[in-house]
Amino acid sequence: MVVDFRRAQSDHSPLFIDGSPVEIVKSTKFLGVHLAENFTWSLNTTSITKKAQQHLYFLRRLRKAHLPPPILTMFYRGTIKSNLSSCITAWFGNCTVSDRKTLQWIVRTAEKIIGVSLTSITDMYTTRCIRKANNIVDDLTHPSHTLFTLLPSGKRVLQVGGW
């Protein structure tokens, strides 16, 4: 995949590895996350939404089988929520409003099926980011450790350096 932000797009000369040309693609899947050459996350969101809708079908089937809400919630957390929050700290912050609404629609649909209140997609993202920041603060060997310091209360993290 070639990432080129120049205004005047030009053809790139082929890259050869061991005498074989490397194929240039518009997008790729790496560690379960769809990356596009223009760094938009719509392809990734579409993939996540498609998987989540498939799992919603099974959630509806379980509801029709009269399973109690705690079991349905456990199924939701193990399949739908884990899918929605996979690598969420990497991609959710740059999602379009439309993509965020689509993802939240999945959560609301699951709420209606189960009959209980569930964590919103934005809260999932915020929770994961805070947890990641706290892990960086606690790990003295982390390359980004110096970018964060605890406030005097010791309960909140202050970002020192810029990203």
From TrEMBL:
Residue span(s) of domain Alkylated DNA repair protein AlkB homologue 8 N-terminal: 41-82
InterPro entries: AlkB_hom8_N
GO function terms (MF aspect): 2-oxoglutarate-dependent dioxygenase activity; methyltransferase activity
UniProt-listed Pfam families: ALKBH8_N (PF09004)
Protein name (Swiss-Prot/TrEMBL): Alkylated DNA repair protein AlkB homologue 8 N-terminal domain-containing protein
